[in-house]
């Protein structure tokens, strides 16, 4: 199944029932607005941890209805992050969201070996893009979390993202491993890794997807660019997921998609026991809302 | 002076007078068409080296007027490249263009220590983009030539690109050094290099431009994204040139600009005694024409 628009995620999320989302340091107008929209859409039921007084103030000035929502008073943001994580450990919440707390503090709580949300997977960022110039959703990893993942870590990242796409109903996501050229060149590490990942997929070492690479970005998004180069590929021109070599590449494409190609993104951190929503103030309202929706499909 | 559209380059090129362009292995319909357009616009006067018979055949079937154009018959593409380079060494031609010859063969002729076009500069690719979502031309380097330039090589690349932009009338190009974050992080090499390049510029070690980095791509193209992060910068939001860490990054952005952000590119190889036009078949006609125009402004 191909998903063309982010809006289609709303239906998938609602079909999963209402999820509990816990917000760490919820005293943030942008976050409260996004959570409120998702609540109205019947997708989530929030729990706010944070500075109760400030949360109520913001709700009032932004006309956000917070009646009936559980608020756990914890004015210290770092401790608020710990408390929010506890809700996910006990299963009382199925989604974790960052409010007005430093990302480092939130991730410290998530990664705590005893009280956190670690799994055997890597924490990684998935960015699901709706782009005017592409015929379906296009996902990229890793644009925000891992600076320079090792090869083994990259396999884990792919597995997490494939699992996420499988849950969206994309049974065999087409995974393109990005490189600057479409040929294997021993001088370009990204092309070496691409060949390895492709062959691991053929050998059944990475499942539930079709991997192909190296592919340059034009080959990934355009079948015509593939024919120009005579590339025979099931993935090129129809990719669901782009695997980037490192953060330099992933972040640059992410920003290019957002700021120059008119893209809207739904982003999550995967690899913990629950999906984590980590929006930034610069994200559009739709993007913040869609990030919550994406987490709710998992 | 800010240049908003690639079309403005035509006027700059014509103000420099008619340049001689020599085409290696000119028996290529796309190349002949582009050169013919540039000739009609009064920008270049061509010399064709290559398979005379095929050149005449193509000219006939494509209705290209080649009357009065000098043709040097050399059916072997690699030798044709050498002959074309000779025209540039002697000064008979001021622009070199690739026809139906392998890039490697052309560059071998260019880089030949005795008979080539080497200078003390690095060969590097400059890509000048017109983008619907940006308020002026946006240039990137290096998206096509150098896989993993060293820091010293990057300085040379910047100098070549700045020289090229200076010739377009952009007296002090704003040079953004791209990284995945806007802060210096000793774990991210691109941010280290960005800080070094910025400071070298302040110390007068790199001249005729204003360098700032590290900047993420959103900070480079959007002043609003800079204010969101509290970044004080003369370059952010108004960059003329983006310096990419390596080919993985440069090529990915280049393809993203071309295929998803609706960009049109004029591309040249700089750093040899003459600018080199090296278009690919997948480039649009406008892009091929503009690449010749860009070379003619130098």
Question: Which helices and strands appear, and what pairs or packs with what?
Answer:
2 copies of one chain form a homodimer.
Chain A: H1 7-15, E1 19-24, H2 29-40, E2 44-50, H3 52-61, E3 70-73, H4 77-89, E4 95-98, H5 103-111, E5 124-130, E6 138-141, H6 151-167, E7 174-178, H7 189-202, E8 210-215, H8 217-221, H9 223-229, E9 241-243, H10 247-259, E10 264-270, E11 276-277, H11 285-296
Parallel strand pairs in A: 1-2, 1-4, 2-3, 4-11, 6-9, 7-8, 7-9
Antiparallel strand pairs in A: 5-6, 5-10
Helix pairs in contact in A: 1-11, 2-11, 4-5
Distance between the termini of chain A: 17 Å
Most extensive interface between two protein chains, with residue counts:
A-B, 42 and 42 residues
Order of helices and strands of chain A: HEHEHEHEHEEHEHEHHEHEEH
Number of strands of chain A: 11
Helix content of chain A: 40-55%
Assembly state here?
homodimer
Please state the overall shape of chain A, judged from the principal axes of the Cα atoms.
Answer: elongated
Average pLDDT score of chain A: 96
């Amino acid at each position: 199944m191909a998903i063309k628009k982010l809006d289609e995620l709303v239906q998938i999320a609602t079909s999963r029932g209402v999820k509990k989302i816990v917000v760490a340091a919820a005293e943030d107008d942008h976050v409260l607005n996004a959570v409120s929209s998702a609540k109205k859409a019947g997708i989530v039921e929030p729990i706010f941890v944070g500075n109760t007084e400030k949360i109520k103030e913001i709700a009032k000035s932004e006309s956000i209805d917070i009646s009936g929502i559980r608020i756990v008073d914890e004015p210290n943001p770092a401790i608020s992050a710990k408390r929010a994580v506890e809700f996910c450990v006990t299963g009382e919440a199925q989604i974790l969201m960052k409010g007005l707390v430093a990302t480092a503090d939130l991730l410290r709580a998530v990664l705590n070996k005893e009280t956190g949300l670690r799994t055997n997977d890597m924490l990684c960022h998935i960015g699901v893009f709706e782009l005017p110039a592409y015929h379906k959703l296009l996902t990229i990893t890793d644009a925000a979390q891992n600076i320079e993942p090792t090869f083994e870590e990259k396999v884990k990242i792919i597995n997490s993202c494939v699992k996420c796409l499988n849950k969206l109903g994309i049974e065999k996501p087409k995974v393109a491993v990005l490189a600057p050229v479409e040929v294997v060149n021993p001088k370009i590490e990204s092309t070496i890794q691409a060949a390895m990942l492709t062959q691991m997929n053929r050998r059944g070492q990475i499942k539930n997807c079709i991997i192909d690479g190296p592919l340059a970005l034009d080959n990934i998004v355009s079948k015509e660019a593939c024919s120009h180069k005579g590339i025979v590929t099931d993935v090129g021109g129809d990719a669901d997921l782009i695997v980037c070599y490192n953060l330099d590449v992933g972040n640059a494409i992410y920003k290019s998609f957002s700021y120059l190609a008119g893209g809207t993104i739904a982003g999550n951190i995967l690899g913990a026991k629950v999906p984590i929503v980590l929006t930034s103030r610069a994200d559009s309202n739709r993007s913040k809302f869609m990030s919550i929706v994406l987490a709710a499909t998992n």
